[in-house]
Amino acid sequence: MKVESSKTTGKPSAAPHKINVFTLVMITAAFVISVRNLPMMAETGLNMIFYALIAALAFLVPTALVSAELATGWPEQGGVYVWVKEAFGERLGFTAIWLQWFQMVIGMVAVLVFIAGSLAFVFNPALAANKLFILAVVLVVYWGTTYLNLRGMKTSGRISTVCFLCGVLVPGLLIIILGIVYLLSGDPVQLDLTLNTANLIPDFSSISNIVLLAGFIFIFAGIEVSAGHANEVNNPQRNYPVAIFIAGLILFLINVMGGMAVAIVVPQQDISLDAGIMVAFTDFFAAFGIAWLVPIIALLVAFGAIGQISTWILGPVKGLQVSADTGDLPPFLQKVNENGIPKNLLILQASLVSVFGLMFALVPGVNNAYWMLLALTILVYLVMYLLMFLAAIRLRYSRPEVHRAYRIAGGKAGMWFVSGVGILTVLFTMIVGFFPPKQIPAGNGALYMAVMGVGLIIIVLIPLIIYQFKKPGWIPDTGKKEV
Fold first, then answer.
1. CATH numbers and ranges of domains, the chain
2. Which of 234, 237, 221 is nearest to 74 (CA)?
3. Is the pTM of this model over 0.90?
């Protein structure tokens, strides 16, 4: 693609394509909603209602409220970079957006592996264990969606919309409807629906239940990323909070109702997180005598995950692009194409994802190391959330004159309460994050915690070091005011 002739940022002169509320809802939903979480929800039985409510009230709602206020006060492109920069300066602003971007680069490999596993059920389930098949899917899907995103925000928005509707909403609604049909048919219900204390409130004396709660909280992560598109939506002061709340409601309903549907049909002992969602769906559709539907659903589920990949490709990079334009990254990474897309940043991103994908698929014994790195990126993402909640509190004091079309009720006390709940939830999840997930045979727990701690410190230090050694020549000579 042609790159504009500017020596520095190569910014196109044309106005960016504007997106409507529906498209923004689809983009936001594509960031956070996936049917691949349903087996984890189902395995917890009726406890899923408690887990989901706590995760929604303690994390999703504070994140949505804070994001809505910050995005409508500072609707320019950049998202968390702009918010943290306004509160604490450019150094921590760059750190926040870099952490959001870094966790995405690692996390996308897990989604790509999930896509490969789903596609295997379209052709031959045995392919799910074929490393070359997994590698081929990782490379083709990620580079293909990167190429499509280089064509601009209009194309990216269409991909998010179509993939979410076909690959998430349709399978999700189908599963929910079939669950209701099964419940009304009089067939044996596999979920204990007794409304007693044990079913409604988990036993938190067990560390595994505490870890599960942290897992539920992380299901709701990512809803703030669509703020990177705030200046591309018509009337962002009104439309952004509307879109984020609609997407949050859809997220909650699909996860809880879809998880309940699976739990009603598939016996709890047959639900395996390790085996993956398609095994659960195979049992689910077999109960209705429609096992022939499994390859079709597998294709739709993979399609939905591809949409999630496509949406994440451009989300954090939009914020990173703004930080690059202020001189936080070298001129090479400031270039955009004629569609206003940061071409070199996307190519760098795709290259890094490819390297991690190659390691995961081909290097013997690397899987455990990769899952440790994935667990580490969760901690990294939580540091970003901590900065975001603290920035929201700080800006109520340092920038009270800025008009926020949406403002958290209750004045400063209301902001302290909402952000305080978010901060406490983040700190709780971080503490739990130092315990090894079930995928990792940790052996020495103390060693695992030490590796997580040291790794977290190193990853957080990287953007601080980059900022410390940035060169004056990195600042674009465009006369453009910093965002």
1. 21-354+377-432 (1.20.1740.10)
2. 237
3. no
